[in-house]
Hints:
The structure holds two protein chains of two kinds. By secondary structure, chain A is α/β, with parallel strands linked by helices.
Amino acid sequence: MSLNVSLSGIEWKNPVTTASGTFGTAKEMSGLYDISRLGAITVKGVAPMAWSGNPPPRIGETYGGMLNAVGLQNGGIDSFVNDELPDLLAVGTNIIVNVCGRTMEDYVAVIERLSTEKVDMLELNISCPNVSKGGIAFGTNSELTFELVKMCKQAARQPLYVKLSPNVTDIAEIATAAEAAGADGITLINTLLGMSIDIKRKKPLLGNVFGGLSGPAIMPVALRSVYQVYKKVSIPIIGMGGISSAEDAVMFLMAGASAVAVGTANLIKPGIVLDIIDGIEDYVKENGLKSITDIVGIAH
Amino acid sequence: MIDVEKAIILENTELIHDVYRMRINSPEIAELCKPGQFVNLYTGDASSILPRPISICRLDKKLGVITLLYRIEGKGTRIFAGLKADDSIRVFGPLGNGFKVQNGTAVLIGGGIGIPPLLELAADLRRTDPDRIITAYLGYRDKNIFLADEFNELCSNVEIATDDGSIGFHGNTCDLIKSQGGISATAYACGPIPMLRGLSKLAQNSKLFLSLEERMGCGFGACVGCAVKTANTAAEQGFHYKRCCMDGPVFIADDLVFEDGDR
Ligand SMILES: Cc1cc2nc3c(=O)[nH]c(=O)nc-3n(C[C@H](O)[C@H](O)[C@H](O)COP(=O)(O)OP(=O)(O)OC[C@H]3O[C@@H](n4cnc5c(N)ncnc54)[C@H](O)[C@@H]3O)c2cc1C
Ligand SMILES: Cc1cc2nc3c(=O)[nH]c(=O)nc-3n(C[C@H](O)[C@H](O)[C@H](O)COP(=O)(O)O)c2cc1C
Ligand code: FES
């Protein structure tokens, strides 16, 4: 009985990671639950320089979900490498860095800077709906996706996964472009573009007007996306979007994900990832599986 | 920070229209709390999955009881108002930095539902210095006031202002303070943004601690959703967003950048 999975040559002790932007720092989270039990930790988006992020309010609530317009606030790659990475590396699990940028050169700069660091995998964020330049502009156009992934792949020393947006007509087409450009894997989905209105102020609720919808409400869309992309690509998929139980995670694996990420549920209940890992283990035992990998894509 | 899935509610009563006092039995959390910190309450309902941050109003570490005061604002607080004694609620905390109690004379300024967190602060100020002069300025909408007796027990002097003049000074706390010659001691405040903005102009010559509110995705530092604009000359635009939940909710007034507008 094994929960181990292997993604592009990187061994994970179980198929569960945190979704980018919902983990915080190792220093702060290690006090809340045993983060070393995670299959991997995916950290928030890192750009070449510090980004201030969007004006508040950045958070809204919807039925079964939430809206966020954080806008990739981050301290830049130097601050990440110096102030956050040492604690992350000390945890004893895989570290995945989510890379963001406004231009192709931005992405390449972060990837080059990380080439000499001991991070295990890279996740190219071409799908953030909350920034005006870069991000999603790449992820909604298959030619641009191809070009960007190709440039980044040349600079990358670690396996390069590409994180896709559901805010497109055909997500499988973008995934195919990323694979053709040399991506080692696909992660999906990022948030769905949405908004809310504050009826007391008679204005859009979020400072940025629009925000990304996440949480249980988006799970059917996420699951459908994983299912569609699995049909079209042969590289591994990390699935996410609304996962808050082991059953949810198992659905993603069956749809074709080799691993899953938990986002919004982390914010509601720190440590829920451990319940999910335990639940997957129970599932494997109860069903007499040799390995969790036996169910990957089984629903097709 | 401790996550208690089912804390028992000892009391949940309406004090004045739409303002409730909830007493929760949670020795583990109470033990760790200090004034100015808050706890997350959860409805456990799909309509409202995010945490509701509510400040510690009063603590009884011996009995292991936390007292909260909350006002019905929307879906979540309406659900809380429907809970009864012996029901349970998920509580996570304590969260945030809390007030850093300074030596000497203290001025407390509270507006509306910003008043409750100042009560445990008053108790702490009194406990740490029985002779300290503590003045509380409390601002309410009208004659429906709450906690005034409790402040009277702990403070040297309590001044009340109401928007409609039905009790005490007719006007807001800023005008009341101005009418009494301003602020000359360390001040601690919590209330609506216009009040806090006004106070930061009034208290140019004394140390002023402000407890802020912002919408939260987690309450424990993971999402960077609860942005508070702070001055930072090293940053490109001259400001930096800090997290209300971890770096605050209490900030030094001089560090904050207030925007004009209704928020
Ligand atoms: C540090 C801190 C301490 C607080 N202490 C108290 C207290 O002691 N007593 C009290 O009555 N209220 C307090 N508040 C405000 C309280 O959290 C909100 O009134 C409450 O979350 C509203 O929830 P709702 O479901 O009724 O409203 P809804 O409008 O349905 O809430 C929708 C979403 O917006 C958020 N939200 C709405 N208003 C606020 C607000 N003013 N601040 C932060 N989030 C908000 C909710 O948490 C929820 O995520 C505090 C807020 C903060 C940040
Ligand atoms: C507060 C918040 C911040 C996020 N920040 C990032 C980010 O920096 N980079 C990124 O690629 N995705 C980011 N995301 C998207 C999540 O990683 C994830 O793709 C999405 O939320 C769907 O999963 P969930 O429903 O489990 O949250 C963020 C999501 C939230 C809620
Ligand atoms: S609410 Fe998530 S970081 Fe403050």
